Each structure stands twice: as C-alpha cells, then as structure tokens.
Amino acid sequence: MTDPMPVIHSLLAGLPILxxxxxxxxxxxxxxxxxxxxxxxxxxxxxIRAGNxxxxxxxxxxxxxxxxxxxxCLAASVNVWDVVIWxxxxxxxxxxxxxxVDYVLGALSRRIEEDESAAAIFLAMMKAAIACLTAAAVxx
Length: 140
Known about the structure:
Layout: H1 5-39, H2 44-49, H3 53-76, H4 80-105, H5 108-113, H6 117-139
Helix pairs in contact: 1-3, 1-4, 3-4, 3-6, 4-6
C-alpha cells in the first residue's frame, strides 16, 4: 500500500494557492461583468427580470466570454497579476465584440430590449468566438 502522506502534504501546500487564484479569478470575472453591465446601454437584469430572453442570452454570452479566457489564464498563470491583467484585456475584447456586432446589425441595444433572440444569439456566439480566440492566445 502506498503512503498517502505525500499526497496530503501536496494538497495542503497547494490548496492556499489554488484558493487564491480561484478567488482572484472570480473577483476579476465579477468586476469585469459588473463593468460590462455598467457600460452596455440597456439594463440586462431589469430586462431579464421582465422575462426578456434576448437579454439573458446576451448576458450569458458575456459571462461565458469573460470566464473562458480567465480559465485558460488560470491554467497558464505565473501569479495572480496574470489573472488581473488578462481579465482586463478580456473585458476590453468583449466590449469591442459588443460594439462590432452593434455596428454590423445596428441598434443592438434596442433589439435586445425588444427581445429579438436572433440578434442576441448572434452577439452571444460572437462573444464566445472572441473568448475562444482570446483563451488560445492567453494559453500561448
């Protein structure tokens, strides 16, 4: 039978680092999502509370779009500052994606407010695509 003590010691040594990186990534994700909500011209939560599916799709796409690159960053990070810096870059890229889709479709905020699912789905998929590309770039 193998001695479990090295595994337990490894867990105890690594757990604080895991918790620090996870907490940092979660805080960066929440801060980026909060800024995203503040910067977008419509009130996603009010729309979602009113049953607006397009707002839910759009905000869900933003949440995933911000989280995926952070997840890859966690896998490749040297320290918590990597997570903070790349989380900021991710936010900027997601805002650019929102503006680009708004430019292509026109009146994106109004379309989301009017619960146009097609526009919201396209926006969410563009956010996911940007997130995938950003995540790959972050991972190197």
